[in-house]
Amino acid sequence: MDASDLNKPIPTTISFDETLKSSLKTLLKATALPKSPPIDSSAPWELGIDLKWLSELKTKFESDEWKVDDLLGRINKWKHYLVKMKASEDPNSEVVEMHFMHIKSTRKDAIPLMMVHGWPGVYPPRLSSKYSI
Predict the structure, then answer these.
(1) How many domains does the chain have?
(2) Most buried by CB count within 10 Å: which residue of 6, 34, 80, 90?
(3) Does pTM top 0.85 for this prediction?
């Protein structure tokens, strides 16, 4: 990798090709959820994901009402970038690719904020309702 490729934000758009979308829907429909949680708990989220919630989400995603293109439209209303950078100051450190969104504040005195996420976490749920997808 050329050093000039580092630290340069490259505009990008979040997208999924039709084959992937079709494949994901097929896999989702083929996935069987258990009839009851494997561990009985009075607090569903205490020991992992709530089975009822997951089942409802699966049903919603399997339906023809839910369109990935609608979600992509809401996600892509912001500017997205990828930037390659060294993981540390060590000259032998690996190069990592970071994704970020650039959302400008309407306030002139706003303090810039950088929110980062890992996998599978994302930051749109952390945004206020003004910016929510």
Answers:
(1) 1
(2) 80
(3) no
